[in-house]
Amino acid sequence: MRDLRIPDQRHPEKAHRPDQAQPRKPDWIRVKAPTSDGYKRTRDIMRDNRLSTVCEEAGCPNVGECWSQGHATMMIMGEICTRGCTFCNVATGKPNALDVFEPGRVAHAVQKLGLKHVVITSVDRDDLDDGGADHFAQTIRAIRHRSPDSTIEVLTPDFLKSSPGALETVVEARPDVFNHNLETVPALYPAVRPGARYFHSLRLLQKVKELDPAMFTKSGIMVGLGEDRGSVLQVMDDMRAADIDFMTIGQYLQPTPKHHRVDRFVTPEEFAGYEKAAYGKGFLMVSATPLTRSSYHAGDDFARLRQARLHKLGRA
């Protein structure tokens, strides 16, 4: 029986990689261990509903803060990914069959947590014809039924190997925000995200806007992987050309010695410079801090995102 708590079994594709030194984190990147009652309540609801979260599976540093406020990013379609990205701590291998009751359990957890804004993400499921698009759509509809006033953000895979129509299936379910992360600059894709294609991901987000111009789109990258400032600014330009509304930029943190090494820790001042540059390029919303992650403060950010669009249209 495979034990996902054991690194070599969690990441068999990385087991024979040479160890990469994990540098000491600077003071601005450290967080306290989670201990609050709110954290425990959120954890218990996740356990009771047999749900996975990207917060735990990816080792997010913000889990204590978010869960203490009752915010969790649900990860559907299991906890085993068919890809082996070198930055990611989600387990890799052959996934189990889809659980047809999972959308209902997610909706129940959203209702019980009283979430005003919920983020739904997933592992990559290249083993499925539609990449899991219909499962996303069913989950969106289940949440709408249980919690009609909640806004929904999806953080999807790239559907690179999926049958035609997969993206349309998700968009037709009408999430409020469609997020798909580019993760890094194109030159680093072979080393960091070898199973993906930069321009395919960019085109995916552009197509969302073509299918539904009113839908908010969002994407993010990590820094500290070996990129330079010029390449980050070029990604911003590429995103704006695809009419992406919201960009996130956060510090890459190396999960284990077998993962891609941290090239450097980007300073808070540099993040502030990226934020200023991104706003200057026309994004409606930007989050650029060392601890920024795709779903960090997603509810508050969505409210500001919606207000920014109204302001731009002269309706605020």
List keywords for this structure.
alpha/beta, TIM Barrel, two-stranded parallel sheet, 10 strands
Describe the structure in your own words.
By secondary structure, the chain is α/β, with parallel strands linked by helices. It contains 12 helices and 10 strands. The protein has a single domain, classed as Alpha-Beta Barrel (TIM Barrel), CATH 3.20.20. Helix content is 37%, strand content 13%. It has an 8-stranded mixed β-sheet, with helices on both faces. A two-stranded parallel ribbon has the order 3-4. Strand 9, helix 11 and strand 10 form a beta-alpha-beta unit. The N and C termini lie far apart (57 Å). 45% of the residues are buried.
List the helices and strands and how they pair.
Blueprint: H1 7-10, H2 37-48, E1 52-53, H3 54-57, H4 63-68, E2 73-76, E3 80-81, E4 91-92, H5 102-113, E5 117-122, H6 133-146, E6 151-155, H7 166-172, E7 177-179, H8 189-192, H9 198-211, E8 216-223, H10 229-241, E9 246-251, H11 268-280, E10 285-288, H12 298-312
